[in-house]
Amino acid sequence: MKNQLTKASALMLVFVLMFGWMNTPVHADPPLFTIESENAQLTSDLQVVTEIYGQPKPGFSGSGFVWMQNSGTITFNVTVPETGMYAISTQYMQELSPDGRLQYLTVNGVTKGSHMLPYSTAWSNYDFGFHKLNQGINTIQVKAGWGFAYFDTFTVDHADLDPLDVQPVLTDPEATPETQLLMNYLTEVYGNHIISGQQEIYGGGNNGDTELEFEWIHDLSGKYPAIRGFDFMNYNPLYGWEDGTTDRMIDWVNNRGGIATAAWHINVPRQFDTYQLGEFVDWKEATYKPTETNFNTANAVIPGTKEYEYVMLTIADLAEQLQILQDHDVPVIFRPYHEAEGNGGLNGEGAWFWWASAGADVYKQLWDLLYTELTETYDLHNLIWTYNSYVYSTSPAWYPGDDQVDLVGYDKYNTIYNRYDGLSGVPNEDAITSIFYQLVDLTGGQKMVAMTENDTVPSVQNLMEEKSGWLYFCPWYGEHLMSSAFNNPATLKTLYQSDYVITLDELPNLKVGTGAPRVSITPADNE
Question: Which residues contact 190 (CB under 8 A, 6 or more apart)?
């Protein structure tokens, strides 16, 4: 009997050892570094307290918390084992303003943008995003912008980077074979390499030399970009003229083996109230800026209005060109109604273009109208739909939805504007990796993210060290590419000749039925 009990006990012990973990809470590994705010270096205008105006703020850790009013800097050092991306966060409370309070994060002397701490009457976590830290000691600072927040702790940990594994599923189930083949290739490349791109000049610029930027790149590096950016702006119902864009797209894809992307700077009449549908309007009397026209964008999604009828005319002109491209088996990474949110806001207050001036809700209706007309009315299925986003707190409200977006884009202009490193007159080769992963999070990692326009191209060192997975880059034309104030020729040459960057000569055959072998994508060596 004793032996039987012993065996039973032993079996029970084995069961507990084998399966007991299933009912035991799993604890995550502790973060790499956490510091109590009162143990950081504080400027003299900051206070360590346990209450505010006699009101306790229970729930903080340590001996107190830092009360930052309208000035002050919190500084701490963190040592990391290797150069790479790290997550920086804080435990905070901000009970002054429902609109948020502005603060600045600085890493190793470089300001990493502004941060609006959300309103919170309880201790909450705020994520400053992913930031590159160098192997060894790094100095991190939080500086008051508008201030008036309480800080309990700061944490630095290894960044939990998205695996960037996107499925090649297009929103259009009737996508042409070439469009699907291109999508397959893009998803294979994504996260392993970056595809080189370049925007061509339009409207007869460069004295009609649309090859100037491309030959400049080739003379510098011996390579051509794989992606060429186009614009359909001159196919319009006002002053429309044939500038050869569609023919150049066909040539680039079918004869040179490249990939085409296209924007659509579609204009409206400045004096829309006196404009008659179908009449000629000189290009000088047309604009895409909302401050230069009385076009009412809110009416553009309401059938029966003149604005709606005008938008339908623009779509018809666009569809005519897209049909020609579809007939020639040319897929297009299509980026309409781009940079919608502009300087931020829900109601169009930051809009740079007329298509966003009525706010996020109307913008999404306008996107839906375009998507539906092109795919259903005009039966066009050669498009990879690209939405141009930002990373403001209001940006998610502008997103048209996973069912009408194939690719998310971001336009990087931070060499003159939106620059935080204290430098000027020199290129800003930052890979803006924190922004990249914020855009990945916009769709839960379901969509690829590309640098659809830029001034300075990030250095290949920054791209690889930070695991910055931009699908492609595409500098704007002219000085944005060729001026040394925007791009260091040596950096650009190194980039184009790197194994990490895919150039025109390295693209596989993306035409259906040619019998060409598929190319296996090998991740670039990060060492």
Answer: 164, 166, 448, 469, 471
